[in-house]
């Protein structure tokens, strides 16, 4: 069995930006992502991935237990790594103009809509239920029927608690699949709208975290996790966090 240690270093980026609108997430003002992990030939990756021709973002499966960052979806494009209702990234390069900065241009030529959290009372507003980190990428402008694939490495079989960091301009729901098989009933995403909000577009920027969105059973190995928007849309997805229920 092959067991190889691989390390990735994301060099810090210095960026300043602005945005008004709803959208998607990852990254820091000075982002440094440094992770080492072991690649195991556990399970059978080719068998598990048979229904998907996509590849992990940066050839780096996201690790479970742990956070699945929603903007690190697979490579492969429309119909393989994701399905979006249009071909335009409504955040990167559009709402956030192409100006040479990492956050404004992240995956801007792909259909998945991506933005990032901003200060100046945009995403650090008084109506947040949970305070987000600033300059974090997230997926937004979601519509019912849209889906995104993530290659993940489940390190241990078992039951996992699912957590989500999000905004929702109205109640909605999502579903989670593993290798094309539904993991649970549709999961309710509760609205973060607030009637006291005086700025209409900021209804898409009230952040919250659901600590126990659902419970799912996962098997050890390399898999494809699919996040699908079922009802309403109008939701922004920062990350899904999978915690082993021991």
Summarize the structure.
This protein is mainly beta and 246 residues long.
Your description of this structure?
This protein has 246 residues and is mostly beta strands. The chain is built from two helices and 18 strands. The longest helix is centred in the N-terminal third of the chain and has 4 residues. The two termini are 27 Å apart. The relative contact order is 0.23. The N terminus is likely disordered.
For the record, the count of structural domains works out to 1
Q: What is the chains' assembly state? A: single chain
How large is the radius of gyration?
17 Å
CATH architecture: Sandwich
| % residues in beta strands | 35-45%
Distance between the termini: 27 Å
What is the CATH domain class?
Mainly Beta
Shape type: globular
Q: CATH superfamily membership, which one?
A: Galactose-binding domain-like
Number of strands: 18
Q: If you average the pLDDT, what whole number results?
A: 85
Helix/strand order, N-terminal first: EEEHEEEEEHEEEEEEEEEE
CATH topology: Jelly Rolls
Supply the helix-strand structural class: mainly beta
* Low-pLDDT windows of residues: 1-48
Give the SSE layout.
Elements: E1 3-10, E2 24-25, E3 33-40, H1 45-48, E4 62-64, E5 66-69, E6 82-83, E7 92-93, E8 96-97, H2 102-105, E9 114-116, E10 137-139, E11 147-154, E12 158-168, E13 172-178, E14 181-182, E15 187-189, E16 208-218, E17 221-231, E18 235-244
Parallel strand pairs: 4-11, 7-8
Antiparallel strand pairs: 1-3, 2-10, 5-18, 6-11, 9-10, 11-17, 12-16, 12-18, 13-14, 13-15, 13-17
